[in-house]
Every structure is written in structure tokens, then in C-alpha cells.
Amino acid sequence: MSDAGGHAGSCTYRRRRRRGLATSALLAKHGVRSLLVEKRREIFIYPKARNLSFRSLEILRRLGLGDEMHAVAEHVSDLVVKPMLNSAEEEPAWTSTPFSPLRRTEPEPSAQYLPQSRLEPMLVRETRQHGNEVRYGTELPSFEQDDEGVAAVVRERDSGATETIRADYLVAADGVHSPVRDSLAITTSGYGAVPIFVVFIYFKAPWRKFVPQLGDGDGVQVKNADADGIFLVVEGDFGIFITTYFPTKVKLPSSSLGSGARRYSPRQSASRSTWRSSTSPRGSRTSA
């Protein structure tokens, strides 16, 4: 199927994070054509979604990524608690993990540190090697579905050029705040939006000297009367500080919420996100 100025595909994706890429790679392995569109202009450089469980590791192994995955994956992220970052006093944040009893029975480790910044390039390459397309810097402004499938309009962010793509299905792998799901009036259930914001501050500074024993992906929870948050080791001097705040009690200055942290800028920058629970939506030609 195709339209003027467009082309055909079995599935079109609007993705967020690695779920869409994993789905695309799995379908590609089984010969299902797809186009994945990603609003970001480049592969993710920050280590979000840091640890993979044994089930995720099994799926990646079935994709043929087992050896490559284990070559870059590390132990499950560790976390210690300290009153101050430069304090000599520290204690482990936990003594065991939920998957610890499985270590003797599973062929894969119970969990490994393999963040999105390391996994995404693998999945992109795997998808493209099977002939499927991944487009960065591309948006999905609108779509329509009918008895024959879905007509999706995609737009390049830089040029503004648009095209219409006919596909059998549209997979909305764009998170809990999915505009695709909202446009279809597919609701979620649960508590709803939690009134707490999680702030991520990306920075570059010579701070690793205070925690030389920690490896990439490990963290330090600093907990005292003035601060309560977690420093995460990323790579070299690049780090992340994560903390929470209640918007009804504290208002962050807008200048601290820019996007200046790209490419490991030494300038501090933060982004905010609200956690919200959801359930799987009902069946449709558009799957969220």
C-alpha cells in the first residue's frame, strides 16, 4: 500500500525510549517491515533506564545480541548512602536485590547495567541490518485509521517536509503520556499523576575523586538536613544528580530547566518529569 508522496509499510512506530526500538528489531527479525520515527535528532546520550532484568536479557539474546550485550554490560548498579558526597562514612543502600535468588537458576545474570545510551545503538543497527527504517528528527503530527489500516503523516523537524505513509498498523511506543493513545480516547487506570516532580541535573565536574570505588552506573545517595538526592556515575566526570520536589511547595527557576546539558556541557541543566501509572489499552489497529 502507498500514497502520493508516501510509501508502504506493515507497521509504523511513534517511539519513546527503547521499547519501540526493541519491538522494531524483533519484528525485523521475523521479516515484518516497519518504519520507526523518533523526535530526537540523535541517539540518546544519557544513561536512562539503566538496568535490564533477566527477561530483557533473554529477549536480547534471542535477537542475537547476547555476546555484544555482555561485552558492554556491567554488574547491576550499586548504591551507597552518605551524609555528604565527600564524607568518609558510607553504608550500602541495600543488601540484596529482588532477583538475587534467581542467580543460581537463570542462564542470564539476574540484572545488568546496560543503559539506553549503550543499548540504543545496538537496536538501531540490528533493525537497519534487517532492512527496516529508523528516522531520527521526525515527528508524527497526525494519523487516520480505517478498515484497511493506518495513514500516518510524518514530518522532518529540520526541513518541515511531510509525507503520508500507509501501514497495516501503528504502534504507539511513546510512553504513558502517549498523544496517539489520547487521540483515540484510550484511557489508563490507576492513581493517576503523582504530585511529585523528579529533577535530573546533568553536569560535568571532577567529583569522582570523592567516590573512586564506584563504577559506571553506580550511585551515591546523599541524605542530610539540606539535601536528599542521588548522584549517578555516568562516564568520567560526567554525572547526574536526581532529586524530587513538590511543585506546590517549591518553584524551580525556569533558567535551570533548559536543554544546555547536551554534549556533556559543564553548565548545569535539569529536566522535569511526572510519574504516572497506567494499564494496557484495549485492542485497535493502533496499538499503544
Automatic annotation (TrEMBL):
This is FAD binding domain protein. GO terms for molecular function: FAD binding; oxidoreductase activity, acting on paired donors, with incorporation or reduction of molecular oxygen, NAD(P)H as one donor, and incorporation of one atom of oxygen. SUPFAM superfamilies: FAD/NAD(P)-binding domain. The lineage of its organism: Bacteria, Bacillati, Actinomycetota, Actinomycetes, Mycobacteriales. Coiled coil: none annotated. Residues 267-288 have a biased composition (Low complexity). Keywords: FAD, Flavoprotein. InterPro entries: FAD-bd, FAD/NAD-bd_sf, RIFMO-like. It comes from Mycobacterium xenopi 4042. Its cofactor is FAD. The keyword Isomerase does not apply. Transmembrane segments: none annotated. Residues 90-112, 253-288 are annotated as: Disordered. PANTHER family: BINDING MONOOXYGENASE, PUTATIVE (JCVI)-RELATED (PTHR43004:SF19), TRK SYSTEM POTASSIUM UPTAKE PROTEIN (PTHR43004). Residues 20-229 form the FAD-binding domain.
